[in-house]
Design a protein that fits this description.
Blueprint (H helix, E strand, L loop, with lengths): L2 H6 L2 E7 L3 H15 L4 E3 L6 E6 L1 H10 L8 E6 L9 E2 L3 H10 L4 E13 L4 E6 L2 E6 L4 E7 L2 E14 L7 H4 L11 E9 L12 E4 L4 E5 L4 E6 L2 E6 L1 E16 L7 H10 L5
Parallel strand pairs: 1-2, 1-3, 3-4, 4-5
Antiparallel strand pairs: 6-7, 6-16, 8-10, 8-14, 9-10, 9-13, 10-11, 11-12, 13-16, 14-15
Organism: Streptococcus gallolyticus
Protein name: NAD kinase
GO biological process, one term: NADP+ biosynthetic process
Length: 278
């Protein structure tokens, strides 16, 4: 049997880790274990499974590394620091992870992601995806922008900026701005204002808005200048943005559905409330 045929019958695994000592140590241990196991083939090219070692920030980076492979790849996270929403395993559970990967029959759990089209005044267009959120802010002065949902004008916003989040991103920056927490399987977007101006002269809705899958959100800046657009953990600067169009992407992110894929509500409790006294 040729090497190519062998690879076709095994699971291709990519391992990505942050620069912390503990993460590198776990990565080395996984490399050694997978090299001894004929059922797995280590390859960062076209993997079936991506193992992210670190925290949520590392998994966001892994998502963007493989966002063109979302139809095929499944993700699983090992956290080596604080509790993360995307990480199912602790650093001391490597053997349990490998055992569950052996037993797994390509089962997965999938969540919606965000797509945005950024159009500049000079005609350039950029297509981007986000797992958590995309924010837009104006650097020099207060941002003024028209907000429309399905071509219906909702408001003329004035303030620091606007955030559009996915359900999985609802527990992050969105929550800190007073947005609602959505279960990650809900196919919806959430629009949340960042420090809006509300007085006798200027008025905005003042609350987050949940937008269903079929609807699109348009943000149309009304002033020229330099805009900061943050896509998950990446930040870009664009001059004279004419429009940003948001929608639910046709693709989803998929995670390995093992018994260790923690309940979303357990994650919420662990992250924000702690152990409950009954």
């Amino acid at each position: 049997m040729t090497q190519t045929n062998i690879i076709d019958k095994v699971t291709r695994v990519a391992i990505v880790a942050n620069g912390k000592y503990q993460s590198r140590r776990i990565a080395s241990k996984l490399f050694a274990r997978f090299k001894e196991d004929e059922r797995f083939y280590l390859s960062k090219k076209d993997p079936d499974i991506v193992i992210s070692i670190g925290g949520d920030g590392m998994l966001l980076s892994a998502f963007h590394m493989y966002e063109k492979n979302l139809d095929k790849v499944r993700f699983v996270g090992i956290h080596t620091g604080h509790l993360g929403f995307y990480t199912d395993y602790r650093d001391f559970e490597v053997e349990k992870l490998i055992e569950n990967l052996h037993a797994n029959k390509r089962r997965k759990i999938s969540y919606p992601i965000l797509q945005a089209k950024i159009t500049l005044d000079d005609g350039r267009v950029f297509q981007v995806r986000a797992l958590n959120e995309i924010t837009i802010k104006r650097i020099e002065k207060t941002m003024v922008a028209d907000v429309a949902i399905n071509k219906v004008k909702l408001e003329r916003f004035r303030g620091d900026g606007l955030l559009v989040s996915t359900p999985t991103g609802s527990t992050g920056y969105n929550k800190s701005l007073g947005g609602a927490i959505l279960h990650p399987t809900v196919e919806a977007l959430q629009l949340t204002e960042i420090s809006s101006l509300n007085n006798r002269v200027y008025r905005t809705l003042g609350s987050s808005v949940i937008v269903p899958k079929k609807d699109k959100i348009d943000i149309i800046p009304k002033r020229q200048g330099i805009y900061t657009i943050s896509i998950d953990n990446k930040t870009m600067h664009y001059k004279n943005v004419s429009k940003i169009e948001y929608c639910i992407d046709k693709k989803k992110i998929s995670f390995v559905a093992t018994p260790f894929h923690t309940s979303f509500w357990e994650r919420v409790t662990d992250a924000f409330i702690g152990e409950l006294e009954l």
